[in-house]
Design a protein that fits this description.
Largest sheet: 6 strands, mixed
CATH topology of the largest domain: Purple Acid Phosphatase, chain A, domain 2
CATH class of the largest domain: Alpha Beta
Structural class: alpha/beta
Number of helices: 15
Helix content: 25-40%
Shape: elongated
Distance between the termini: 53 Å
CATH superfamily of the largest domain: Metallo-dependent phosphatases
Order of helices and strands: EHEHHEEEEEHEHEEEEEHHHHHHHHHH
Length: 380
């Protein structure tokens, strides 16, 4: 069986929704047995999810997502699969707290208590099935808590956060496993049932790396997506503009020429070009680590609106503690250079440390990242 815990979506940016449609086409090709709905999926609204579910025949489930203002579930709370002589029940729940900011009434959804919903689903499934599996979009800690609070769940497949378990954990009689995020790993579980007793045969993570050959259908779909994406969101190289942002490197170079020359020799200066090379200049997941202050009020938006904020520039690492960049600049323009030079202006900025780098160079995106080695290449 193949199942998913939810969050095939990411944001409501148009380019991301465009990508989600292709992703769901791919999921349909893989013939999933059950797909739980996460809070990032629900933000697209009932109309969108109904449409894609019908178009691709996707087996969405959720035991705690209701049509807003009603007592009616949006989709089936669970599915029952016949595998040989076994009946396997699969239900899904998603986080209520995590949905608070994304799932507005305008989406047509209301997320209710996942524990109560899980108990209700288990009570029904235990009367009909030999095995009960929960798709718990609650994070690893939330999944373990669910195992403690709800009796009768044999296996919990967990999602929502980036944690992953190399081997299944056992909470009482319940097996819990989580595969991380972004589809980089596949969880593999084998179990057997004898005399109404379930025993785990094997549980492991499978890294979906280059060693695993591509499925030709999906490889073709990815190629189709790449071409369609470029057609809908043309790639453009940044062009200089007169009214540049005070947060761009053009502002910093006025006083920090030596530091700017050193920065220009690093890969931070080439971050945008790497997106152009891979045709990913409209992908929000890539933009957050290849542009300056993406998703912040004065940061990068698109190459058309803020072409001066491409690449990982000064302001992305040297973030102001408060105020605005003009106040920092004015210290040098109003005869206060001597006072500022004593601290090299550092008091205006947040300290830089390993955490600054790990915002982007984390285990998911840079598994071989070494902070000490990298810092020597960028420090100035």
């Amino acid at each position: 069986m193949l199942v998913d815990c939810g969050d095939f979506g990411s944001t409501k940016v148009k380019s991301e929704i465009f990508k989600v449609n292709y992703l769901l086409t791919g999921m349909a090709l893989l013939s999933y047995d059950a797909i739980n709905l996460g809070e990032k999926d629900l933000q697209y609204g009932a109309e969108f999810l109904n449409e894609v579910s019908k178009r691709h025949q996707l087996p969405f489930i959720s035991a705690n997502v209701y049509k807003y203002g009603t007592e009616e579930l949006f989709t089936k709370p669970y599915l029952i699969k016949q595998k040989g002589n076994l009946k396997i029940g699969i239900f899904g729940v998603t986080t209520k707290s995590g949905a608070r900011h994304l799932v507005k009434p305008s989406t047509g959804f209301e997320v209710r208590d996942p524990v109560a919903a899980a108990q209700k689903a288990v009570n029904e499934l235990r009367q009909k099935c030999d095995v009960v599996i929960a798709l718990a979009h609650l994070g690893l800690n939330g999944a373990k808590e669910l195992a403690q609070k709800v009796n009768g769940i044999d296996i919990i497949i967990s999602g929502h956060d980036t944690q992953r378990t190399q081997k299944p954990a056992r909470i009482g009689k319940t097996v819990v496993m989580q595969m991380g995020s972004k589809g980089k790993y596949l969880g593999h579980l084998e179990f057997k049932v004898a005399s109404n007793l379930i025993s785990l045969v094997e549980g492991k993570l499978v890294s979906l790396n280059a060693k695993i050959p591509d499925d030709q259908r999906l490889a073709g779909l990815v190629s189709e997506f790449d071409k369609a994406f470029v057609s809908h969101y043309p790639l453009k190289s940044p062009k200089a503009i007169e009214n540049f942002s005070l947060l761009s490197d053009r502002s910093c170079i006025q006083c920090h020429r030596k530091e700017h020359r050193q920065w220009s020799s690093t890969l931070h200066r080439k971050a945008w070009q790497s997106l152009i090379d891979k045709e990913q200049t409209s992908d929000p997941e890539c933009l957050q680590c290849h542009t300056t202050l993406f998703k912040q009020s004065d940061g990068f938006t698109t190459v058309f609106e803020t072409p001066d904020l491409v690449n990982v520039q000064c302001a992305d690492c040297h973030q102001l503690t408060g105020g605005n960049p003009q106040e920092h600049i004015n210290k040098f323009r109003r005869g206060r250079a001597a006072a500022s030079a004593q601290t090299n202006g550092h008091a205006d900025f947040k300290p830089i440390g390993e955490g600054t780098c790990l915002r982007c160079h984390n285990k998911e995106s840079s598994p071989n990242f070494n902070y000490q080695e990298a810092f020597l290449k960028v420090t100035h």
